[in-house]
Design brief:
The protein contains 12 helices and 11 strands. It has 2 domains: 200 residues, Rossmann fold, CATH 3.40.50.150; 35 residues, no CATH class. It is globular and about 60 Å long. By secondary structure, the chain is α/β, with parallel strands linked by helices. It is 37% helix and 27% strand. The structure holds S-adenosylmethionine. S-adenosylmethionine (SAM) binds next to loops.
Length: 306
């Protein structure tokens, strides 16, 4: 298999991310991801597209019962394993395509984390389906992305207007609906670039693929940069105004209806109750003839979990 950009810059990324993540991870993305994941004590956690495994290691330090990191890049995993050898925390690393998690049993995890990797994964639909398979019913997927609306690689840019002492920040975006593969250049040394593939997708695509994989989106966050980022990054003030990242918590819907009932109650009411509701809606519609609000949105809400 030819070496990917991730393979070629594995050492550079490992140095940047270390054990705490780089500035953007540490002071923008990860606080939101960690908040959504919540306490992991006693939980089985899968870190999808784990990179050098720094986040997996944080879950292990926070007393997760089991932590597995999965990535496609062998050199990246070699560095993750070297960290594990130097300071053993019991994290297991496996080389897998996120869309083919063979060897990991159905329902084996309580939480799957996909930190800043889904936009780099070619088969996102397959990856979400596999995340759904390896999660136990009502297990949670927490994912972070480059913001699909505001951070579209070279299709988006800051536009800063200076009028005397006043600074106005705009974010220019073009071609939002165009879904395509982009080659992203990373400057790993002055004048030296490595490129990786990124897949531009709309929010609609992500949400449709989540629903298809059996997920119900519970929370969404557009993380606010922390003080460290505002202090150290030249774009800190801009990111405080317009988010460049998105964090989502989605719950694996229990198709078999065997769970605690929290989601069953919200999404799959028993057939008799659904029929009664539908009769009531029909009655309301005929009372309010001429009004166009109401029915469309309830259909959309129901399809989220279907
Ligand atoms: C931007 S890095 C994020 C790594 C890590 N989660 C982090 O936040 O530092 C994207 C990662 O996705 C991995 N990746 C790309 N395609 C993949 C696939 N099909 N299956 C698993 N991992 C993949 C890359 O090797 C890379 O380590």
């Amino acid at each position: 298999m030819p070496r990917s950009g991730w393979d070629r810059m594995a050492a550079w990324r490992d140095r940047r991310l270390g054990e705490r993540g780089d500035l953007t991870h540490r002071a923008v993305i990860d606080p939101s991801v960690r908040r959504m994941v919540g306490p992991v004590r006693g939980l089985r956690v899968l870190d999808l597209g784990c990179g050098n495994g720094y986040l997996a290691r944080q879950f292990a330090r926070a007393s997760a019962a089991e932590v597995v990191g999965v990535d496609l890049s062998a050199p990246t995993l070699a560095l993750a394993r070297a960290r594990e050898r130097r300071r053993p925390l019991g994290v297991r690393y496996l080389r897998r395509d996120a869309a083919d998690l063979r060897g990991l049993a159905a329902g084996a995890f309580d939480v799957v984390v996909a930190n800043m990797c889904l936009m780099d994964i070619a088969d996102v639909r397959g990856a979400l389906a596999e995340a759904g398979r390896v999660l136990r019913p009502e297990g949670r997927l927490v994912l972070s992305l480059s913001h699909p609306c505001f951070d579209r690689d070279d299709r988006s840019a800051w536009d800063v207007e200076h009028v005397q002492y006043e600074e106005t920040v705009w974010r220019r975006v073009r071609g939002y609906r165009v879904e395509e593969v982009r080659e992203i250049p990373w400057m790993v040394a002055p004048g030296r670039f490595v490129t990786t593939r990124s897949y531009l997708r709309t929010l609609t695509t992500y949400f449709a693929d989540l629903a298809r994989a059996g997920f119900v989106v519970r929370r969404l966050d557009e993380p606010m940069p922390r003080a460290e980022f505002l202090r150290k990054s030249s774009s800190g003030r801009y990111v405080a105004e317009i988010p460049l990242h998105l964090v989502i918590e989605a719950v694996r819907f229990d198709r078999a209806g065997l769970g605690s009932g929290r989601f069953r109650r919200g999404v799959t009411a028993p057939a008799s109750r659904r029929r009664a509701r539908s009769r009531a809606r029909g009655a309301r519609r005929s009372e309010s003839r001429g009004r166009t609000t109401g029915t469309g949105s309830s259909r959309r809400a129901a399809s989220v979990g279907s």
